[in-house]
Amino acid sequence: MIDILQYIVKIFSYEESSPIIFTAASFWVFFTILLMGYSFVYKKPYLRTLYLLLFSFFFYYKSSGLFFALLIFATICDYTIGILIPMSSRKWMRKLLVGISVFLNLGVLSYFKYAYFYTTSINSLLGTNY
User: Fold this and answer.
1) In which domain, by residue range, is 38 found?
2) Is 78 inside a domain boundary?
């Protein structure tokens, strides 16, 4: 019984040494389970959306680890802004909300894409070790 529980914990925990990647057998097992479950929920739009969202989150967590928190952050921000846009009666407010969404997403992307470059450049120029 304890071995089964440990195996289940292993399935649902992130291991940096063995992430799920598209060429691994574990991905194809995951994808097969996803498709089998999808065949039961595809006619119910709300359940289908929730099912695919949860499987997408699980896949991203198993392949990226703690970067999963960034996906959750972006999802919550964009979902909230997506709800607020139709509620806004003024055109400038809708444009502002879209701009905020774009700024947040591009800001996170820019930080993770360029922070290392800027840090190493500053360290090289100033002789620091940030």
Assistant:
1) 1-64
2) no
